[in-house]
Amino acid sequence: MAIQGKFTSSTLQDAVESISSLPGVGSRSALRLALHLLKQPRENILHFAESVSRLATDVRYCSVCHMISDTDICPICADTRRLQFQICVVESVRDVMSIEATGQYHGVYHVLGGIISPIAGVGPSDLTIKELVARVAEKNPSDTEVILALSGDVEGETTCFYIYRQLERLGCRITTLARGLGFGDDLEYADSLTLGRSIAGRQEFKP
Amino acid sequence: MAIQGKFTSSTLQDAVESISSLPGVGSRSALRLALHLLKQPRENILHFAESVSRLATDVRYCSVCHMISDTDICPICADTRRLQFQICVVESVRDVMSIEATGQYHGVYHVLGGIISPIAGVGPSDLTIKELVARVAEKNPSDTEVILALSGDVEGETTCFYIYRQLERLGCRITTLARGLGFGDDLEYADSLTLGRSIAGRQEFKP
């Protein structure tokens, strides 16, 4: 962009370059954001920078479920009201937040930290699968349910299958998320794969 | 948003709140950006934070034209090839960058730092108008051209008129940006005010 060469301040230029490294933020937006920050009181800018730098220094991960946390054990694992024998396996921190936002789940989580993807060079050993198996083995596996809440794409299915193979000998219950029509979806516009899964996974009608 | 109450880490929550204070960044985007930063190497996060905090600590403004600068005199004012007797008056730092990007202007600038707006509570004394008048008076005013490059809205017109009144007794030349049809604009779709200005400001045809 023409604007890049027109900086009269390398400080501003550095800030714009840093901000435009964020995904979905172009150099024009980055300039707008940097100039916005520049107009703020000094302490607001420093607070902004401080709260970001603390992402590098203060963030920890729960030693049980690998969720982001301020403490060694995250608030979800530490909550005695949550069902410790129901472990929901998710790809990322964000998925935990999405499921928590539903208010429908009362068990605990296990964050894999990614998904098996040969293309992206992510293998099983890059994820917390070994820790999951150890965690289930430590409990009474026959009383434990592992819910595989991964994406419905090829990588998700592969990861589900790999984890299933690791867990089946322990004898725990292994479930997966219901797939089917979305809430309020119109039958007419559903793709045939989704509709097929919806029929195969049909449930008792309980009015 | 439901997601707000679901943070298991106050560090992440603080970062998300800071990022979502930026204009045009909602809480979902802020979460996405914070999680993206979190995945970066530690030194990248710290570099990001550092480059933002330097906006609070290292940014200076040119003592002549009030443009953002690393030094007391900005590179534009310090450039001896630029016409020091042609002063383009703009509202903000960003306008200087936009005009510089055209490559069509070879004079210097004067950044007002805002525009007169009774609604926003910005009066002439909040801007660098006094400094502009002093700057013109110090030069040989009869050789000096002041180009008023402000927005075409009511605030812009008011500010132009105020500055004109301050400068006219000095005897400098005062010009304003050409208003008219944009490059490539279709006559049929132009609003009548713009078209009217285009006719009134018509120029010799020089093929």
Structural account:
The structure is a homodimer of 207-residue chains. The first copy, chain A, has 207 residues and is an alpha/beta fold. Helix content of chain A is 42%, strand content 12%. Chain A has eight helices and six strands, in the order αααββαβαβαβαβα. The first copy, chain A, has helices spanning 10-19, 27-39, 42-57, 75-78, 93-102, 129-138, 154-167, 192-200; strands spanning 60-61, 68-69, 83-90, 107-111, 145-148, 173-176. In chain A, the strands form two sheets. The first copy, chain A, has a four-stranded parallel β-sheet with strand order 4-3-5-6. In chain A, helix 1 packs across helix 2. The first copy, chain A, is globular and about 65 Å long. Chain A starts with 9 loop residues before the first helix and ends in a 7-residue tail after the last helix. The model of chain A has no long low-confidence stretch (mean pLDDT 89). At the A-B interface, helix 1, helix 2, helix 3, strand 2 and helix 5 of A face helix 1, helix 2, helix 3, strand 2 and helix 5 of B.
Oligomer: homodimer
CA-based shape of chain A: globular
Residues in helices of chain A, as a percent range? 40-55%
The spatial strand order of the largest sheet of chain A comes to: 4-3-5-6
Count of β-strands of chain A: 6
H-E order of chain A: HHHEEHEHEHEHEH
- State Rg of chain A: 22 Å
How many helices of chain A? The count is 8
- Summarize model confidence as the mean pLDDT of chain A: 89
**Content of β-strand of chain A:** 5-15%
Task: Tell me the major beta sheet of chain A.
Answer: 4 strands, parallel
Low-pLDDT parts of chain A are none
The N- and C-terminal alpha carbons of chain A lie at a distance of 60 Å
Biggest interface between chains: A-B, 64 and 64 residues
